[in-house]
Amino acid sequence: MVKFIFQEKFTILLIFLLIYVILTPFFALVLNEELLLNISFSAVMLSAVLTVSQKKKSRIVFVLLVLPCLVFIWIKLTVTSSEMFLAGVVLQALFNLFMVFVIILFIFEEPVITRNTISAAVVAYLFVALFFTNLFLMLELIFPGSFSIGHGQIMADPSVLRYFSFVTLSTLGYGDVVPITSQAKTMAIAEALIGQIYLTVLIARLVGVYATQYHSKRE
User: Fold this and answer.
1) Which of 212, 209, 15 is nearest to 117 (CA)?
2) pLDDT given at position 192
3) CA 164 – CA 66 distance, rounded (Å)
4) In this structure, what DSSP letter does residue 76 have?
5) Of 12, 31, 118, 194, which residue is most buried, by most CB within 10 angstroms?
6) Residue 77: Cβ within 10 Å count
7) Could you state, in order of their start, the residue ranges of all structural domains in the chain?
8) End-to-end distance of the chain based on CA atoms, in angstroms?
9) Helices marked H in the chain — which ranges?
10) Could you tell me the CA-to-CA distances from 133 to 16, 168, 179 in Å, in that order?
11) Could you read off the pLDDT of 22-65 as tens digits, one per residue?
12) Cβ proximity of 66 and 96 under 8 Å
């Protein structure tokens, strides 16, 4: 069982991420949404321990990021100051960026393509969207009115910017949430470009490794 967990660590992390991104809003119909989001994102962070458990430097950085992040996530349930909220968003952004960095290194160091490798690629993509979610929230906190929906509506339901981030990353662009300021527009452009570049480079990498793996097996 322990061997399976370490072999499929990114698959496990992917499951927790999908629960956080997709399933939590449905459970929020009967339970407190903010509490559920805190629980599910805490599970994501804790399951991420598996992904950095083999490298000492990564473990140190991880602990320095995750512990304060967990504290701020749960404190903001009772303390509602904007400074506290901003601090939590910044810490989450650093955590998400760190996870993207760790996972991309893992993908490009892997000599073979496995289910865990593919899961890692999907996880990194989701963390990119979550990272930009935090950037958009920081932008709105520092420059209120950066988006077409009201500042009060965003503060009441920050998940609307998570929706905007995923829509932008995939270049779907429904147009119901629109960046207004030049800073917000630039950030949206950056996310759309990164999303496309990531998919292009990733597919090239996976295809190249798979081709090498396939020819090695035939020989």
Assistant:
1) 209
2) 95
3) 25
4) T
5) 12
6) 11
7) 2-218
8) 33
9) 2-7, 9-18, 24-27, 33-47, 49-52, 56-75, 82-109, 115-142, 151-156, 159-169, 182-218
10) 18, 10, 13
11) 887 777 666 676 777 778 888 888 788 777 666 666 667 777 77
12) no
179 — phi, psi (to 5°)? Answer: -70, 135
- What b/e readout covers 174-190, taking b as 16+ CB neighbours within 10 angstroms? eeebebeeeebeebbee
Tokens of 17: 């991420």
Which pair of tokens denotes residue 62? 């991880």
Place of tokens 């990114």: 10
**Region of 175 on the Ramachandran plot (φ > 0 left; ψ -120 to 50 alpha; else beta):** left
Q: CB–CB of 102/51 below 8 Å?
A: yes
What's this model's pTM, rounded to 2 decimal places? 0.87
